[in-house]
Design brief:
about 80 residues, SH3 type barrels, 5-stranded antiparallel β-sheet
């Protein structure tokens, strides 16, 4: 993806085998841009539904539709 395509709240997937170790995971964009006192844009802050947020560069992201479940998945009430 490019910087211009990323927006907060967007559903994304991290490319497989990403250096961060979180490749293949899906999540939502929380913020885009500058983090930890650096004056240049370094990535997008992604909520991957774990107790941490990860910063991933735009080139390693692809847009996905998290609203629909993958084949074989089913929602149930517990």
């Amino acid at each position: 993806m490019r910087w211009e395509e990323i927006k907060p709240g967007q559903s994304v997937r991290i490319y497989d085998n990403h250096d961060s170790g979180f490749g293949g995971r899906c999540g939502r964009v929380v913020a885009i841009g500058t983090f930890t006192g650096i004056s240049e844009r370094i990535g997008a802050l992604i909520d991957i539904h774990e107790p941490l947020l990860v910063i991933i560069e735009p080139e390693a992201l692809e847009e996905v539709d998290l609203e629909s479940l993958q084949p074989g998945w089913e929602e149930v009430d517990l």
